[in-house]
Amino acid sequence: MAPFQVRLGEARKVARADRRIFVTDVESRLGPSRYTADTLKALRRRFPRLWFVWLMGADNLVQIPHWERWPEIFRIVPIAVFDRPSYSLRALSGSAAKRFARNRVSAAKARRLAEMEPPAWVYFHARLDARSATRIRSERKTLPEILKEQSPELSTIIALNSSTQSVGPRPEGSEILNLVLQTLDEGKAEDVVTIDLAGKTTIADHFVIASGRSTRQVLALTEHLEQALSRKTLISIEGKTQGEWVLIDAGDVIVHLFRPEIRGHYNLEKMWGETLPDSEAVRL
User: Which stretches of 15-142 are assigned E, i.e. beta strand?
Assistant: First the structure.
């Protein structure tokens, strides 16, 4: 890992693309604090009038029970957890998520997360980036040059997509959605629900949620969708090993395949239906 001052400088260069982001070295100036819980307490004491939200990836939600005094973190500040490839299933079924299950906030209420009394946390099923952290770090040398040469808006687009494989013109979301629904119908998926997210979130234009009667059927549906979609667009798949909850990210369309009991437990329809004000948000 690069020295602190180098990482701080690079972070500030990246943050120039969005004036709402302010990079600070305040943690290094708070005095000796051995653990994250200590750092958060120090921040609250130093800035009593500010609202804080702890941001972390799903991989950290998996491993946070190994952190020193980790329950204190949940009780000091609200937490926003962002999905990462191959981690959502383990994160949401892990001991931290179970221990604070009653304090989980739906994405519909996430706008007010900073104002909520902890413990309060939200899990965002965001569009996934298949690149590893190692790969992203290896690309950081070119990013400052891009940000220096391009406008902030364009540089953000270039930085996010510079390593994306070219597959020709990107298919329209409606084309992918129709292909997903057709494939699910051919595979005899049950209780297929489409949630229209267009214009309401940047995660995707549509969620498609469906059930398979068994793990075998969930995996069979996954295979059929993988074959059909990979001919049209880049996709990433998570949960294929277990076959209980499979997530297929096809860009503008994200597909969730469940076994019935797992689907009932997480109830994504209710969570995302609450985020949508119009009555036509969920279509059977």
Answer: 54-57, 79-82, 104-105, 121-124
